[in-house]
Here is the input.
Amino acid sequence: MATNSGAGTQAHDTNVLNLAAERALRYFREVPGRNVAPSTAAVAALAELHEPFPTLPSDPSEIIAKLDEIGSAATVTTTGGRYFGFVNGGMLSAALAANWLAGAWNQNVALRVMSPIAAELEEVILGWICEALELPADCAGGLVTCATTANFTALVTARQALLERAGWNVTEDGMFGAPPIEVIVGGEAHASILKALSLAGFGRKRVTIVEADSQGRMRADKLPEFSERTIVCIQAGNVNTGAFDPAAEICEAAKKQGAWVHVDGAFGLWARVSPKYEQLTRGFEHADSWATDAHKWPNVGYDSGVVIVRDGAALRASMGIRAAYLEPGSRREPMHHTPDSSRRARGVELWAALKSLGRSGLCALIERTCAHAQRFAHGLREAKFQVLNDVVINQVLVSFGAPEVTRKVIKRIQEDGTCWCGGTVWQGKTAMRISVSSWATTDADVERSLAAMIRIARECRAK
Ligand SMILES: Cc1ncc(COP(=O)(O)O)c(C=O)c1O
Here is the structure.
């Protein structure tokens, strides 16, 4: 029986920490042999978790053992090499190890005085990210949960800055009666941009939508006139096709009119680190703000979004917070750069991941996953299935025939467990999405997954 289940104990129970580490390592050893999706029985067993709030304390070691027994079985094996759902990256060992250490630290990175190490690391990695993505070195930024929040943070900042220029202080006076702002998005903008716009008070319906081409790129010839009260949201990497908006043309037109350009580069922006793919991302550096995720392509664990803004003062004007007990420091204070105040030190994992990769490792990860995507597309085409997109980076869209056949194939692939892919509807066509975003995916993983996809699709078509 444990000694520190209740309140008032002095020492940490190192037995339970060792047990958690042992169980985690066992889980990792089992990953290569696991089915990617959990079994129906494992998911059904989650019902055991529903019990009334316990009246008495429990032994931490028993809790961890139970969590492992019930929980590990009901995970989706996203840390292995055969998970191709959404745009979920894997997790580099350095990131996981840093997460364990940071867990022991339990730092609140709101203010530098609360955690000098966490605040310092944020500064270092924001600099590294600007360097890696070739964005201006004097940008300001914040570490947030995800690209949705990064988009939200940037759009609220754009709103603040454009209204400020129009003589309106949105912090003090809010949005009611404010001069109107026109927001422009592409026809294939990610849903998170629309959510962020609605959270920022712009409304989803009030935006001007620019027609997209067959790959989801905004058509530059269809752009409306911009003004100094326009926010244009462009995309580096469409979630379905991986396509990039024509940033150079859009930024040039926007700059002339004083409009604000925001980039949703949740994963695609990282293609800038590869000389092979960099030409797709030309012009994005001229924008005013950028949202990206480190939990996608850079393979930092969840949650790890990043917002970067050219005008640091604008970011601080929209995100800053004041109270007598929050003494302003003389250096960057994390809480003045994000919507939240108290938060975990997610920069620790980000620092460890980027340091473990270095520029060459990050570049190799990007190029390797793109090459895997090409192999999937080639193999599926050879098997006479229709690849719907130009595979420009790490995203593949494939149709297996009629919508109901494609849906059935996706369901069967998920049940089979060799790999995991999700579905979508791309410009009216039902498709399966293959997103190769994990460092852990090997050539063998790709061949094994491809064979499973083709076998299952042929079986479904034969019926
Ligand atoms: C282009 C794009 N923007 C935004 C998001 C949202 O990312 P998150 O789930 O981290 O908020 C995604 C997710 O795949 C995406 O692909």
About this structure: The chain is about 40% helix and 10% strand. The pocket of pyridoxal-5'-phosphate is lined by residues 86-87, 146-148, 190, 192, 235, 237, 239, 264, 266-267, 293, 305 (CB under 6 Å).
